User: What shape does this take?
Amino acid sequence: MRWKLRPPNSLRFTMVLALVLGLVGPSWFSLRHEKAEVQAALYADLLVERDRYGDILERTIGDDQSKAYIDGVLALLMLDTKIRSVTVTHPDGRLIATMSREIAPDIPVLSATRNVPGTPKQGQPQGDVAIFSLELSTEIIYQRLDEAEKRFYTRTAWTLAATLGLLSLVFYIGLVRPVDRLVRQSRDIAKNRLSQEIVWNRNDEIGRVGQSLEDTRQALAALIGSMEQVNRELTAENQKRRAAEASVAAYANELEHRVEARTRELSAANDQLAKAMETLQLTLSELVESEKMASLGRLVAGVAHELNTPLGNALTVATSFQDGADELAVHIRQGAVRRSTLEEFLSNAMAGSNLLVSSIQRAAGLVQSFKQLAANQQSEQRRTFTVNEIFDDVTHQVSEALRVSSLQLITTSAPGIELDSYPDPLKHVIGCLVKNAMTHAFAGRTEGCIYLSARAVGEHAVDIECNDTGVGIPAENLTRVFDPFFTSRLGQGSSGLGLAIVHSLVTHVLGGRITATSTLGSGSRFTVHVPLKAPDLTTRHRRNP
Assistant: This one.
């Protein structure tokens, strides 16, 4: 395990460390400055002494160059302990005299070498008579520096001790004791001892901390009091809840018995309801069969009614032909055929033939429409086309009828609505809706508008609407407009198969649906909702044979 030495986090240690650094740091720089000044001053003194001793040697040696005299001068100079060595030589290098003393080899020395000129004679300068070398030891400098450093350490130690002592006393009285008191008071608050008021009669930082601690104590006391009040209320509420739960349990027990009894009653009622549903299903089946028979009866009656007129006309013409032919045969057998009789027969035959052809064609048309109602989806051609193409074709189909009437056909469609479907059935549907509106919607009116519009529904379908501003459809007829042979113009040339064929084409061929809405006096709206891609007719026929 590795232990890391961490400095103590005590505020006292931090302040003492800051104080020591604050005192020692400047003192250390002051010592370095003082040592530099002392060293410079002593070095300057040594230089002065070196030059002074050089002057002395120059004056004394110039007067007398005897060895004994020079040795005496050197001995006097060596009395100064700062001198390490003195050497006097002839100009040619021969030694005259030398004296030295042993000093520590690591102590630097100051050296000076000077030439000693001879004493001038008769005003004439003489040449150099000797050369001396002088070495001064700098040990005195280091001694003085050591003494100054010792004085610094002594002075700094006393100053630091006195400052630390005084500051410790002030720190203890002014900070440590108040902080310890704050710690004790905060611990009392932590232990929920909130009854004792915290009083600090100080205006400094400690006083503000103490006042903040007192504010905290008051806030905690209020909060704890509030929590105790809430706790008492919760306790009372819990007691009420337990009482209510007991009451609810009793009520639930009673309710369970009631539910069991009610369940038995409901079970019996359910059995009765099942029997009633069975009876209702039987009745409904009978009603459906009755409705089917009624629809079949209406369909047969419609077919009979529509075919009765052309077939009756054809029968009348055929009977007339038979009577005329019998009468003409009698005249031929009697040999009494006259030109006028033959011309009358031919005239009646031609008129009857025209009526007979017209009646048979009308009957054939009705039969074809009826066949289209039942099986029109089996012979349509599928391709890709746009809604605008259908609108253009329908507009062209009814353009002549619109020209001779006062009606307007207005078409609107979003561009690019493309279908993969059966264009002819869709064209028949839209054209039939427009023609139906032109025929029925504007009875008793001289003008009006028919609107064709198309809009895409999502990405897979389109809504095509045919609106008119006509008289509207009565509510009782609105649910029957798609029934075969239902028409409001019975006997006025309307077969009642148009919208039935439209419904069949939309649902069976185009794979969509058609709805009709109307408001009397405001007009009608037919909405054709078809997929953009029609279902395959072969598949639909296979599923729905």
In short: Confidence is low (pLDDT under 50) at residues 373-379. Residues 379-543 form a domain with the Heat Shock Protein 90 fold (CATH 3.30.565.10).
